[in-house]
Amino acid sequence: MDSDSESGPAGPSRRNGVNVKAEVKVKAERAANGRARSQRARVDTDEEEDTGRGGRRSSRRQQEESEDEEEDEEGGSPRGNKRQRVNGNGDARSSRAPTEDAEGDEDEDEDEDDGAPTDVLPKTQTLPRDVDGFIPGSIVRIQLRNFVTYDYVEFRPGAHLNMIVGPNGTGKSSIACAIALGLNFPAKVLGRASEINAFVKNGTESGYIEIELKGPAGKPNLVIKRSLSAKNKKTSFTLNGQPATGNEVSIKMAELNVQVENLCSFLPQDKVSSFAHMTPQQLLVETQKAAGDPNLSSWFETLKVEGKQLKEALQKLKEDEDAAKQMEERNANIEKEVERFKERQKIEQEIAVLELLVQLAQFRQVSQDFAVAKAEQRKAHGKMMGLKERNAPAHALEKELEKAAKKATERRDNQKKSMKAKAESLKKLQQKSEDLDSTSEEVISQLESLKKNEKDRIRNIKVKESDLERIQTEMDKPGPNLPDPAALAEEQKQLNLERNALGQERDETHNQMRTAVQQKVDAKAEIDRAKESLEKLDSTDSKKLHLLQKWDKDTYDSVIWLRRNKDKFKQQVFEPPILSVTVSNLDYAAYVEAGFNATQMKSFVAQSKEDLDTLNHYINDTTKALGRNVRVATWWRPFNPDTVPPAPLSPDQMQEIGFEGYINDYITYDPGMEYYLKKELSLHRIAVTRNPRIDVAKAMQAYGNVGGGTFINGFTINNVTRSRYGRKAVGNMTRDLGKPKNFIVPPVDTNRKRELEETIVERQQEHDLADELKQELQVKMNDILVKDKDIRDRADIIKARKAEIAKEAQRVNHLKARQTRLQNELKALLRKPPIDEERATLKKKLIKVAKERIELAKRYTTVAEVLYEEQVLCTKAGLEFIQSIANHTALKALCAVKDDKYQAAQVAFNAAHTKYAALKARLNEVMEEAQKKMPLLPPELQDKAQEVEDQRNQYDKEVKAALKEGRPPPSADGIELRTTDELMVDLDTQRTNLEMNINTNPGVVEEYEKRQRDIKQLQRTIKEIQKKVAKHNQKIKMHKDKWFPALQKLVDSIGKRFSAAFDRIGCAGEIRIKEDEDFEQWAIEIYVKFRDTEKLQLLTGQRQSGGERSLTTILYLMSLTEEARAPFSLVDEINQGMDQRAERVVHNSMVDVTCKEDSAQYFLITPKLLTDLNYHERMKVLCVNNGEWLPEERGLGNMMNMIEGYVQRNKETRGARSA
């Protein structure tokens, strides 16, 4: 709450201060001893929401929850600055660290804490009560300075039930906030602002929370002080006056078993609804933490871990057993193939050995043959070389005669070449003489033909002249009767005019048709585009459905079921707002979403109680709809418009402040949804503006005048409240506006949809009109085509007549051209020279040829004489050549006789050498083959083959030695003496055996052997897993035998009290344990019924009303109280929404339960009390008297003094009456 006072309780000049709150005791008890004020040391630290949580969580759980709490939560504060992280453990920084620079401190602390192991917070049960009545860990004193609504306050609660009473807005719930934050629990447990500096009172720079907790018997109390700063989010702790870290405080809380995070032990005002929203599994976990055997939680965690590991082990065991069985079956199927393969391998090895032995036998045989051939080759070579030496002199003389013969041959050939050249020259002269003779005959022939040519020229002249006369006669004849070209041209011109006019008409009609067709196409395209746009608009629903499916599969499946089963309901059941509500302007999507929480966004809205029951029956209560258990939010309330408050601001006020409208103005929905949106969400009361700079104070005042409400400016959500007491101060709690997630799908624009539908109708009309116009134009075009055909026919006639005229002109032109050609030819004949001149020319040529022939005859005679001389020389050279050849031939014949013996020796040598070379090559070949085959054998077969060969070689040496020495040969036992042929027979036999053995894929054998190894490994793994399964089962049984009886005892105890409490108010309630194979799914389920006509129904956050949920919550917590282990518990305004009868029963029951001698400390915060309630002497009532104004005079308004005065006056009155 806003306040301007900063003075303390004893200040004489107080203006708007806050008095120390009066304490009213039913049983007078005072604190025996004062508490010395602890030394105060300010230590800057970064307030983390994930600081140590207490001893009920293992280090692993601490880490997981710390990571969860690091996520940003929805909410904010008036001061929205982001704070800096100190370290990952949430520890506060010790004051002993350097503090000159804030950033340096943070860095140093990060270095100091990084990598440090998280302290394991031990589990602990409630410690024994001390002589003053307090249980260790319970709250003895609370002091606040500048905290939320308080300037300064200090009070001391009692050891049992503490009822904190006061009007709304005075700061009752702030006490719950102080307890949680002062003991280093995160702000999120309060459901309010998440920033620690938001709790410093407005107008002040700093504050603190000081809480004194009862210490163990015989030990001093624990005083925890937490300092806060409004400027930043840093904070510091002290323990008994000494600087401490947040983790150290959390460890102390764990030792004392303080459970502020457990809704079963600490239920702030803003978390009351969260209790009903807890899943049954969460309720089981929180209940075990809060009550019963202190080992319940650890046993349960062990069971969950062991159960999960057992499930994984059994799954792995089944998989491995199935795999081993399958592999054994597969190996059994191929075992015969493997045996056959091994037999084949044995045969192949025998064949390889035989092949090698064959090669070795062949090598021995070839070696022997090679030795014989080598000796024969050497002997033949010696004989051949002896004969060659004896024949050498004769061969030398034969070579000399051969050289002489070659020289004689060269002389004869040279002489023949010379003579041949002279003969060739003589031949050329003779050819030239013959050519001249031909020329002479040709000239004589030309002379003889001159007369004949002259006669032919005269005859040709006469023929040409006759042809010219006929052509002239043909040209002078009159032509055929042809039309007048001018008239024909005029007729053509008129026809062209008609054609042009008709073409223009055809083009216009064609253009009109094209326009009509284009209009038709355009209209069809417009229709298609409009239909496509309509389909896109309709697809918005599918986008929203897809968004819902990713968010909440159960709600999505329920929507699909509802759409298919609308006939089961009397009235329309509306789908969740995420589907049925549309944001008309996406700029306001974030503002609209701010008006919904997750449950409201997914709630089905019914219009009648009967439809609500039907919906719950099919979806929530049974598995008929979806085939599985689900929890879906549903809503229905009796229609009563009077319960819907009006809009808080008038249009003029909205405009004056700067609001743009209410959330309701920016959404579209079915009218049947209006009651839900107004009654449940009050969307018509949440004003919004995108301008962050409006006058927030004026908006707060306007909302405060109507009792409070919510408005949004820019990116800030403002929750305005107004106190109903004193000066009715107005308060404002702010948080940041989140980004839209669910309404970001573009809305369906109904106007656009209507425009598209109208466009389709209009364009369809245009399409039809264009089609009609096209048909009319087509008829017109057909008429034009008929006229065009008539014009073309007439044009063809004119064309034919023009062709006749052209043909006649062509005939005349042809005659003229022929006439011209004949005239030119006639002129050429007339210009030809006379015959005498040509005759004289030919005679001169004939005389010239005769002279040339005489000169050529002289040259021919000279060359013939030279040729004769050459012939004599050539004859002489030929005779010398014959003599030389004869000498050489005779000697060569003599040498040939001598060489016959040599040739015979050479042939014998060549034969021996060929045999030698062949055997040598064969020997190398056999040796190489043996060398190649030897490495291919396995090592043991190589050794065996080498041993056999060595034995045979040794045997052969011994046989040779025995023969040489004349003694008997050695024994052949164990010696491989088979010949090559015998080995080949055995080899063929084994090859036949191999062919009879069907070939098996080697991969099958490899697969078989690998699978055998895998089977052995799997069998070892299965034995290990079976041991693990047995170990897990044994451990689960051991822990379950401890855990389940203790849990059953706890639930039976709670259930007995819970059912009795419901019986007292005429209702029914049960607590049940839901068992499951998976320990993660074990749960505590609360079943209640508030009407005789109903059956017991599971408590959910949606099915029951707010008052029913509150009543169930407090009765469960009361039933849990006697079993609780926490040193103190707190509930805040749990009676809101209850009727008087239920509230009275709850109050009286709470007094009975919490005021027992062995009950722990309990805080009940409430703004109101009924009259004539039961009270107990162990109760303590704390009245919060806090507001903007208090009297200046000290002591005035002190409620304790007022009560003591009232008691004193009653005593005096009774004494006077008795006197």
Automatic annotation (TrEMBL):
Cellular component terms (Gene Ontology): nucleus; Smc5-Smc6 complex
BP GO annotations: double-strand break repair via homologous recombination
Coiled-coil boundaries: 300-344, 488-540, 805-832, 1008-1042
Residue stretches of biased makeup (Basic and acidic residues): 22-32, 401-435
UniProt domain RecF/RecN/SMC N-terminal: residue ranges: 139-1168
Protein's recorded name: Structural maintenance of chromosomes protein 5
Family per similarity comment: Belongs to the SMC family. SMC5 subfamily.
Domain of life (superkingdom): Eukaryota
Positions with biased composition (Acidic residues): 65-75, 100-116
Location of region: Disordered: 1-133, 401-440
Keywords from the named record: Coiled coil
GO molecular function per UniProt: single-stranded DNA binding
